[in-house]
Amino acid sequence: MLPSLLLATFLAALGAGLMLWHLRAWRAAQQDAPDTRDWTFARRQFSRRRRVSLLIVALGVLIAAGEFIHDPVLALAYWSGTLLLVLWIVLLAILDMAASHQHFGLQRAQRDAEEAILLRQYRKEFGHQTNGHPPGGEAGNGEPENRT
After folding, report:
1. Which of 24, 90, 103, 105 has the most beta carbons within 10 angstroms of its beta carbon?
2. DSSP three-state, residue 32
3. CB pairs under 8 A, 24+ apart, for 97-102?
4. Is residue 15 within 8 Å of 54, Cβ to Cβ?
5. Over the range 93-113, which residues count as b (16 or more CB within 10 Å of their CB) and which as e?
């Protein structure tokens, strides 16, 4: 009985702590304009993670309450339902991970595309110069620069 009550307390505290953490992250994300892709992602992410945090708290309560069920048939149904809740939490976590992967993958692709555009513009304007110097030295005559 004591181990299950400790686990239940841990899960309830974990869920409450995660809820506070997600709430702080959501408040920080609200600094973005509400019509941006990042703001929309943060709003949906907060909603998903809030649900999971509350389900973790509920799981803790269910584990604690399960100690008081003594009828075998009722206990089987109760713990089967609790197991389904655990599987649902895992599924929601996987879906959150997939949504985050997709969002940050799109951000990375957008950043890479912008970088390629800037690099093409730079090469068009400056040719193949590096560090602000022509390829053949300061004089630009093709001779290596003598720095003795």
Report:
1. 103
2. coil
3. 99/41, 99/44, 99/45, 99/48, 100/45
4. yes
5. eeebeeeeeebeeeeeeeeee
pLDDT 10s digits, 11-64: 999 999 999 998 988 888 877 767 678 888 888 889 999 999 999 999 999 999
Burial of 60: CB neighbours in 10 Å, binned 0-12, 13-18, 19+: buried
130 DSSP β-pair partners: 133
Residue indicated by tokens 């590096």: 130
Six token digits for residue 85: 């809740």
Q: What does the DSSP 8-state code read for residue 68? A: T
Cα pseudo-dihedral 38, 41, 47, 52, rounded to 10: -110
Sign of the dihedral through C-alpha 88, 23, 18, 16? negative
Residues 49, 22: contact at Cβ < 8 Å?
Answer: yes
pLDDT tens digits for range 89-107? 999 999 999 999 999 898 8
Measured in degrees and rounded to the nearest 5, phi and psi for residue 7 equal -60, -45
